[in-house]
Please model this.
Amino acid sequence: MANPTTNFGWVMPTSASLVTNLPADFNTFGQAVDTSMAQLKGGSTGQVLSKTSATDMAFTWVTPTDQTPLTTKGDLFTFTTVDARLAVGNNGETLVADSSATTGLRYTGGTVISNPVINSCMDVWQRGTSVTNASSTVYTADRWVTVAGAVTFTIARQATSDTTNLPNVQYCARVQRNSGQTNTANFDLLQGFETTNSIPYAGKTITMSFYARAGANYSATSSILQAQLYSGTGTDQSPTAAFTGQATVINQNATLTTTWQRFSYTASVGATVTQLKTIFTMGPTGTAGTNDYYEITGVQIDIGSVALPVRRNGATIQGELAACQRYYYRNTADSAYSAFATGAAKSTTFANCFTQFPVQMRIVPTTIDYSTVALWDFPENAYTVTGITLSQGTKNNIFNTVNVSAATLTASRPYYLLANNNSAAYVGYSAEL
Model:
């Protein structure tokens, strides 16, 4: 009597077979082994054995379908649901993670350069962390200007309070139609870039990205926030008017939810472009509720077809502040009698006062704004300020003179320009586009 082997089921002779059926049993055993081994014979280069039965020893040679051989110098093995080939990128391109790509990786072209969007993470608010705009053009967060129709909006700094759906960005801008407003004119939040910061993108594929979410009463139709990028061929033109040779690079509708999302849009910039600006437009409907707002942060432009990790123009908060102060510098009081400038009276009605900026401004400042200041003499008498203008004489983008108007001054006497018993006093200088 012959018995099958435990693993392969080959019929092996038993001790009884030595007397009765030894030749026949060995023949059966040998044929079984030969049949099994034959399945391992053959196959072509690159093929592998594949088991065809779960219950017996059955194999076949197959060509793998879950691997793509590397064919070019620099190719990489990656993984999707199976192994896959990632073709080498072009010279100078960088490999980055991209969850939208099949392999989770993508080559992106060009050198990683500084984000041209200054104050992209809404950190710096020299003009105050809450600014209201009604039917005018007003700067809010540094470098961000708003253009309103006949509707009142408030733009305020808010904590993002979410490290799950966006990276560790501390602040955002909340753009809110004030509760009860019934006017439905569009409202724009925009930033224009200097020519020197725009031309690196000329003739390139770029990706504009940002994080945004909606308030519970966000009233825009279909919860849309319109995201646009325009180009122009002028030099350092204001973003609140049409550029010379203006063209649309990106015009997309982002559908907001109450959860932070990152939106990114890829397009090509014209080869002759010398200026760019980005615009976000809310088109409200109906009567504004308590939370008729959107929030935005992390606005960024990258060369290539991938939105890279969030980064600031100035790399650090100190660098970002300096970048902002190149366009606008506000000297804000830190006490009730903080000093802003010092000088001397030129006559009984005005004094020249001198100030130095913390960074070199983009150009000589063109406008000045101020609040609750006074001239003080050394005996500590206060003189009401009736006006402050930029001097037409001694001025540059590092050092400036202001003409301070007041009554009953004493010619040639030295004076301070101080906060007038108000810790919220300030003097601001603008060199905006």
Remarks:
- The first helix runs from residue 22 to 38.
- The chain has a mean pLDDT of 89.
